[in-house]
Amino acid sequence: MVIYLNIIICEDKQENIKEISRIAKDFFEDKGIEYSINAFNNFEKTISYIKSLHSYEDCLYILDIDLKQDKNGLMLGREIRNMDEYKGEMIYVTAFTHQMHSVFKYKLKILDFIDKGYNMENDLKEAFKVYLKIYQDKVRNKSLVFKIGGNVFMIRPSDIVCIETDKSKKKIIIYTTKEQISVNLTLKEIQEKLTNQFIQIHRSIIVNKEHIKKMENVNEDLYVVLTGGIKEIVSKRREKEIKACITL
Question: How far is CA 245 from the centre of its chain?
């Protein structure tokens, strides 16, 4: 199973960002987990980045409470929860341990509340162990599973950008936000595994509605432009249906 984690840190002190990043790097590299770390030192930059994401299931937020701004880390947590609808996991690492009760007041649903001044590295790694188990179970339960040769691929539907028929090889190609995978299935067979999050725009193409960025006309043909700049043509007989669906 391929797992990609998006670790998002918001902490006002650069030395703490470096230390938390190091601990996360040591832990997840040791587990063979692919990850990215995106660190910010203020409320606005963190929110701006999170707004740019198309999916939150793979997010792990590590937040401080005192950001030396008018808006503190608890307010940040509440804004994040308004956006991600509790899909990601949240850890607070702070010297303000007396604020623990405020987490419940803000209804943040956190994974752990860690004291910066007491064994932070050990406590963070213990929290990461719990997070990894939660995340792996979530991926297994929500993923489409494909066996290709000796490898098993688990792909979350939210990561699929589009699927198209590879006529020359009698396969389908699944384009995800991270990679592309060729599978011995027909478009009809995979369509049976998908929800109404997906729509067929052409006899050989299915797209994820959540990844449609815009529609454009090129020489009297209609195209959808998807995440990653992928552009797919829309069948003439499906134009009205696609436009109505995307307008909703």
Answer: 24
Return the H-helix or E-strand segment holding 125. Answer: helix 120-142
Tell me the per-residue pLDDT of 102-141, one tens digit each, with 9 for 90 and over.
777 778 889 899 988 788 999 999 999 999 888 877 766 6
Q: Is 148 contained in some domain?
A: no
> What sign results for the dihedral spanned by CA atoms 214, 217, 223, 226?
negative
CA-to-CA distance for 133 and 37, rounded, in angstroms? 19
Q: Are 49 and 23 in contact (CB under 8 A)?
A: no
Please give the structure tokens belonging to residue 1. Answer: 């199973």
> What secondary structure does DSSP assign to 180-221, as a single string?
EEEES--HHHHHTT--TTEEEEETTEEEEGGGEEEEEEETTE
Instruction: Note whether residue 25 is domain-resident.
Output: yes
- For residue 216, give the CATH number of its domain: 2.40.50.1020
Q: Count Cβ atoms below 10 Å from residue 29 Cβ, excluding itself.
A: 11
For the entire predicted model, the pTM comes to: 0.63
Instruction: Among 114, 142, 170, give the residue marking a domain's end.
Output: 142
